[in-house]
Hints:
Chain A is mainly alpha-helical. Chain A has helices at about 15-20, 50-70, 125, 140-165, 170-185, 205-210. Chain B has 5 domains: about 5-75, Winged helix-like DNA-binding domain superfamily/Winged helix DNA-binding domain (Arc Repressor Mutant, subunit A); about 80-165 and about 180-200 and about 230-235, Winged helix-like DNA-binding domain superfamily/Winged helix DNA-binding domain (Arc Repressor Mutant, subunit A, Orthogonal Bundle), CATH 1.10.10; about 240-335, Arc Repressor Mutant, subunit A, CATH 1.10.10; about 355-430, Arc Repressor Mutant, subunit A, CATH 1.10.10.10; about 440-535.
Amino acid sequence: xxxxxxxxxxxxxxxxxxxxxxxxxxxxxxxxxxxxxxxxxxxxxxxxxxxxxxxxxxxxxxxxxxxxxxxxxxxxxxxxxxxxxxxxxxxxxxxxxxxxxxxxxxxxxxxxxxxxxxxxxxxxxxxxxxxxxxxxxxxxxxxxxxxxxxxxxxxxxxxxxxxxxxxxxxxxxxxxxxxxxxxxxxxxxxxxxxxxxxxxxxxxxxxxxxxxxx
Amino acid sequence: xxxxxxxxxxxxxxxxxxxxxxxxxxxxxxxxxxxxxxxxxxxxxxxxxxxxxxxxxxxxxxxxxxxxxxxxxxxxxxxxxxxxxxxxxxxxxxxxxxxxxxxxxxxxxxxxxxxxxxxxxxxxxxxxxxxxxxxxxxxxxxxxxxxxxxxxxxxxxxxxxxxxxxxxxxxxxxxxxxxxxxxxxxxxxxxxxxxxxxxxxxxxxxxxxxxxxxxxxxxxxxxxxxxxxxxxxxxxxxxxxxxxxxxxxxxxxxxxxxxxxxxxxxxxxxxxxxxxxxxxxxxxxxxxxxxxxxxxxxxxxxxxxxxxxxxxxxxxxxxxxxxxxxxxxxxxxxxxxxxxxxxxxxxxxxxxxxxxxxxxxxxxxxxxxxxxxxxxxxxxxxxxxxxxxxxxxxxxxxxxxxxxxxxxxxxxxxxxxxxxxxxxxxxxxxxxxxxxxxxxxxxxxxxxxxxxxxxxxxxxxxxxxxxxxxxxxxxxxxxxxxxxxxxxxxxxxxxxxxxxxxxxxxxxxxxxxxxxxxxxxxxxxxxxxxxxxxxxxxxx
Lengths: 214, 540
């Protein structure tokens, strides 16, 4: 009973279709059986973009802004993923961005206290190991300044490591390693990016060793 | 917060601030105000990364924090502020047209860094300007700071809320987060600073020396950092003022296109006089007497007082109501008193809904636009009447109406003749629900900008290898030119990029430019629609 009437007549609707303007015998558009296509065909071309000096200047500004923002310290780059074991080549890799250092100095008074990333070790404690290095030739002074700024960053990293991983020695070793790395980087003849771990040749020998024993 | 807005906000954050900030912002937008621990849990990032991201977002005013009564601090993302990132080029360009290069660079620095103290901003801008000047010249700080003061006087930049002064002997522990506040009257007060100095230029020849000196100086300064005299006073860009300026510009150009140049100048003068006195959201400016207007007209326009009055009368009578007459001088009749005619004129700032109309011809055709405009004027029309008034044959009119109906730009209104709503005895009227149509178009705009951004990022990703190669070649060329290489060697290096690759690069550049220009264009439409919706919802 409910199905009666369907199919008879073109498509009965609850209101009088003539009032809206669909006359008898007019072809209605076919019913839509699927979602509209992802890229519908353009019926008419879009209007041309406004050119002129203003448009071009704003375009250049937009691209400049994008480029500039990438260089600012506010562009937070994710830290390098931690490897499972320390590798020999880590010494020669270029230093990756450290996770926990903040490159700019916000005004901490304006921010909630919980957001402050704390630096544990005081700077004064760190100046002691630097004293013997001051006898180095003058052209190394620049390296020392670089090292100090790196050390400051390293302090922040290592302070967090201490808290979280309780490995003090690793922190000190990393500092000294990085310290040495700077010297090595300047003196070595080898192109560092060509450095090959040699890992791919390693593990098989162990297995063979077991079998070869008679 | 529609889905389209959310998507656009997270794309903007990711593009300008990186993945981590994008994730944090995205999570905050979707879940609403959150304390730090829950945020760390939601995003799955390291706590330090989340803290860093929040610092960046708060610095740029994109996230605000609030201390809850139980002591925790909740962070909330401000979606409408994030969407403004699209409009940064327009703000900077406006500052350039109004205040020249120092103004442009000041606004740019403030936008890039979120908020800065005045001394810092002036120093940076002076350095940048010095670099672009010829050798030997430097930019003085005074010129830059005078531009700064002018920007503050016209309210284009404002002070950030400050940390309240804590008494020295505070018995209670300090609160977990400072409650920043600022009084309205202090917002534009420039501190008395004596900024003396010149911009520094980076010399390429004796760079090493300077590098060493700088490094030494930094070391010394690091030990005893002197607090700058305007410590704690930060400045930010006042976006609402810029929006007011854009609205005024649009109003003036609308008057100019409807009437003539002189009347637009009159309106521009009125708006300029009431710039600073009107609150940004007001629907009417303060009343201005015609004497004042006459006095403030720009020098080049020597139209007589009578002519000005005629123009004002014309503007007031215009059906679009740009200017309204809001009073006579003491008494009901318009008389010339001894003090001079003092009728007040108020230009309203509603956004006329004719601005919706230009969008339509591009999608549906000019005839549809004609029907739409007709419906806007006559409010409700029957099918037959539409055909008659628009002078379009019935079949086409029907087709266009149904298409617009299916897109929800027009709607049907039923008016029953009988209580039982029988279809044969009911009027069906076509009408335009302006607010709904405006909101729908706005949603579409957000979606289009998000699509444009994704497409642009896709194009860049596809050609990443090629872009990197071209950058390397440019770097090599630059270094070779610096060390003085011959033309043949330079040519050889240039040959490293083959012909088809060059073609591909050209295509890429053209496409990216087109997409960027489109984004700017859509943002203008977004501004118009948002202003319209805002101004209409505010009025009771």
